[in-house]
Design brief:
The chain is mainly beta. The chain is built from 1 helix and 6 strands, in the order βββαβββ. Strands 1, 2, 3, 4, 5 and 6 form a 6-stranded antiparallel sheet that branches.
Amino acid sequence: MALGQYHLFLVMSAALLLLNGVSVAATPEEKIPGGWTPIKNVNDGHVQYLGSLAVQAQNVNGASLKFKSVISGETQVVNGMNYRLVIEALNGNNMGKYQAVVYEKIQITSFVSLLG
């Protein structure tokens, strides 16, 4: 029997969109349910990982982008978390900026003690 199951559901936006804007930082305490809040540290490993996953998902759909980094982003508290990310990626020899929306929901379905 496992300690628990950890489910991570990512729903990628229908397409990455060319974007010109950038966002500023805010603290987690400023998050408003349903509203978008700038990500304070886009260099956080988890944020960069989500950006990389967004590019990989787009490549599965026929693109051939190479992820460079997330350069800005916002979060939205829903039944989970939306991340609206501005991503730099190479498309051939051309660097481009793209926007991806990633939905993340963590759901623990079981957690039991294995002792006694």
